[in-house]
């Protein structure tokens, strides 16, 4: 997040990739952040796909938003 805010996009991608490859393959917030970073680097098609994946409704998101458990 800090790299995105300071417009150090390449550094941000280097920080995000290990998280997605080693620990959390489909972490929604990380996928969305990587998409936003790529969008700023004019890699719009790839960015759109990552943000779309990051915004996919999962069981946890649906239950938190609706208040049902």
Automatic annotation (TrEMBL):
PANTHER family named in the record: N(ALPHA)-ACETYLTRANSFERASE 15_16, ISOFORM A, N-TERMINAL ACETYLTRANSFERASE-RELATED
Domain of life of the native organism: Eukaryota
Protein name as catalogued: Uncharacterized protein
One GO term describing the cellular component: cytoplasm
């Amino acid at each position: 997040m800090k790299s995105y805010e300071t417009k150090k996009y390449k550094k941000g991608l280097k920080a995000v990739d290990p998280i997605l490859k080693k620990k959390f393959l489909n972490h929604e917030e990380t996928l969305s952040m990587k998409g936003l970073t790529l969008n700023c680097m004019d890699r719009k098609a790839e960015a759109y796909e990552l943000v779309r994946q990051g915004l996919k409704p999962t069981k946890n998101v649906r239950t938190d938003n609706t208040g049902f458990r």
